[in-house]
Amino acid sequence: MNVRPDFSKNANHAETAPAFLSVWDMHSYYGESYIVQGISFNVHEGEILALLGRNGAGKTTTLRSIARLGNPQVLKGEIWLDHQPLHRMASHEAAVAGLGLVPEDRRIIPGLTVEENLQLAQIQPPIGWSIERLYDLFPRLGERRKQEGVTLSGGEQQMLSIARALARDIKVLLLDEPYEGLAPVIVDEIEKTLRLIKEQGMTTILVEQNAVRALQLADRAIILDTGSVVFDGSAAEVLENEELRHEYLAI
Ligand SMILES: Nc1ncnc2c1ncn2[C@@H]1O[C@H](COP(=O)(O)OP(=O)(O)O)[C@@H](O)[C@H]1O
Ligand SMILES: [Mg+2]
Q: What GO terms in the biological process aspect are recorded for it (predicted)?
């Protein structure tokens, strides 16, 4: 088990960035509250990384820090995406650089149909995923293209929220508890779709309370505990390590 990720001295230089997405010694604060306390990890191109940990461990704060939302404030550290310094960017610039955050609350825009939600997300000219390609991936959205987005079921809204991120030309998908509140049969469907998205080359960070489901899908896992990385290794290792699961994931 590799408890601390191994970083070369030059990990903070774009030319030698060790992975597709690199978070290096990141410290994040909400006002005076010191939440993410110097975390480092790598995400390799095309993999699914599960970001796990108990409630309040700092998972959402980590995703919001990477997406440069401003709250939390990242006061120290570097974040590199495909040789681009996200840590020097505002959130809209990070979005253009290829970051796609799907927040927990899904944020479907009221008054717009499914298709309008997707069209609004799509950049011009559309070099991200085409709307037809998204309907192939999410047939339910195709069937409901004329329906107002906010009237969809919870699972369908989650699909729309993911599809909307893909409609931009993103390089990495950050999912914050996509299975929350959904029936197991819908979780199955979303999981299947996430596998298809991976097969098409997407890099994904998956934050989930449903750790077993996330680990079954993920290649690797990071476990956070009070804002620090306490495990960095393969998803299979976590599934096999009862002590680790019990101590940090309560499963
Ligand atoms: N907007 C905020 N202002 C102040 N503290 C916050 C805010 N959001 C979260 N926190 C605190 O940061 C810590 C980590 O929260 P969070 O990243 O949401 O955890 P997780 O997603 O792992 O459940 C918690 O102690 C939480 O209370
Ligand atoms: Mg959270």
A: L-amino acid transport
